[in-house]
Amino acid sequence: xxxxxxxxxxxxxxxxxxxxxxxxxxxxxxxxxxxxxxxxxxxxxxxxxxxxxxxxxxxxxxxxxxxxxxxxxxxxxxxxxxxxxxxxxxxxxxxxxxxxxxxxxxxxxxxxxxxxxxxxxxxxxxxxxxxxxxxxxxxxxxxx
Length: 144
Ligand code: DQA
Known about the structure:
Blueprint: E1 2-7, H1 19-22, H2 27-41, E2 44-49, H3 53-63, E3 69-73, H4 82-91, E4 94-99, E5 121-124, H5 129-143
Helix pairs in contact: 2-5, 3-4
Bound molecules: 1,3,4-trihydroxy-5-OXO-cyclohexanecarboxylic acid (DQA).
C-alpha cells in the first residue's frame, strides 16, 4: 500500500508559524514521525508540500494509479478551494483531511471546508497527532 501525504500552503513554516496555534514541531519532524508510523504499519509513504493550489491539484491528479490514498492538510485552501475538492472527487482517490488545530473552535471562516464532503474522514485539533491518526485511519479504511 502506498500513501501520499500532501501539505498545503504555509505548512512549510511549521515550527516558526504561530506556535501558540500550530506548536513548535517542524514539517520535517512531522514527516519523520509519519515515516516511522508508515514503517510500523508496513506501508510506503511519499511527501509533497506546495503553496500553490494548481500544483496540489496536479499532484492529486498524478496520484491516480500510483497511490492507494491521500492524507491532506490543505491549509487555508480547505476553506476556499473548489479545485482541490474537484481533484479529489474526479480521481476518486480515498482521501483523509487533517488539521493540526481544531478549525471548529476558531474563526467562522475556518468552519467551512470544501474538502470534507469528498473525504473519507476528517481529523482536526490533535496537533501533530492529527497526521498520525489520519494515516492510521486511512490505512485501516483501505484494508477493510
Ligand atoms: C490548518 C487550519 C487552516 O485553517 C489554516 O489555514 C492552516 C492550517 C491546520 O492544520 O490547523 O494553514 O489546516
